Amino acid sequence: MRQLVPLSRPVLLLVAAAILLSGCAVTNRLFRDRAAEERAAALLQMQLAVMRFADEYAIRINAQVRAFQQATDDPAERLESQSWLVSQATAAFTIAAGPNRN
To answer: What pLDDT is stored for residue 76 in this prediction?
Structure first.
């Protein structure tokens, strides 16, 4: 019985240390997947670039449609061009904000 006490104390300390460190940031640093983090960062950068492109596209299309609307007197053409503008901007933003299909 006396031999179990000296052996159980280090085991008990080891289990207690494992429990204390399991929720700690130390274990996250030891066991994190750097490749997965780099892929996630690259995907985020790509999505931000696509979203910037969609913003620029919408701005440029808007300017051209506004110029067309000011140049025409036909209300039907102005309404049709406005509908087209909204559909183009919506499509660009939907694509940019959508999930990555790769």
So the answer is: 96
